User: Fold this.
Amino acid sequence: MLEGKFDQASLLKKIIDSIRDSVKLCNFNCSQNDGITVQAIDDSRVLLIALKMDPGCFQEFRCDRDMVLGLDLESLGKILKQGNNEDYLTLIAEDNPDSLLIVFEDKKKDRISEFSLKLMDIDSDVLTIDDMDNDCSITMPSADFSKIARDFKTMSESLQIIVTKESVKFKAEGQIGSGSVIFKPHTDLDNPDESIKIDMNQPVNLTFGAKYLNDIVKASTLSSTITIKLTDKAPALFEFKLPSGYLRYYLAPKFED
Amino acid sequence: MSQQTLSRFFTVR
Assistant:
């Protein structure tokens, strides 16, 4: 049996809102030690989502035996809208379930809402992601990165990320012209999350589809910082930390064959 | 510039 209780329904709502425009169907893998993990690839096979909600994400978590919950995220999203952000949210599934029970509890009133979501058999490929040695790692405020991704998408289909030891530069070239934003590393002692950290072994210059970056930055609601790991001619990793665990996006770059 | 897919970099299990 699975029973996972979130202190705030908003956490799961934000997570699902961050991924449901990229993937529609996915398997939630549940286990006592790892909590709930998800790996899903978008239809174009350009973007991969790796979610890890450790047991620490939950106020209470038990999972007596490993189970897989096949979920339609659009349907799950509809149910999650029914609860309030501050409600307790509990996911309950029996062994070999054909449905997932979702329970909202208002913390102040005696109100309990229960929903049952039909589960699906989802046949999905699982990709093996080796630990990559990265050429660069950037940690910056997620709001700043989100603004760049959203603004530059109006100018170009692609966003170039150029990292040197001194700076990270985001650049877009479109029909109307071009633009760039440069960030230099800095440490904000009063607001550490406002700091910009650049670790570089080798400079990189990579180009990504603006559409995918726009999907990725939907997760900015989950964490005030984002870590971007880049390697020449390889997929980039965009990571948002959860209270315990992470939401990662692997995005394949664009380049000449 | 052409968009690469992840299959090119990661192996399917």
The mean pLDDT of chain B is 87. The interface with chain A takes residues 1-13 of chain B (CB under 8 Å). Chain B is about 0% helix and 30% strand.
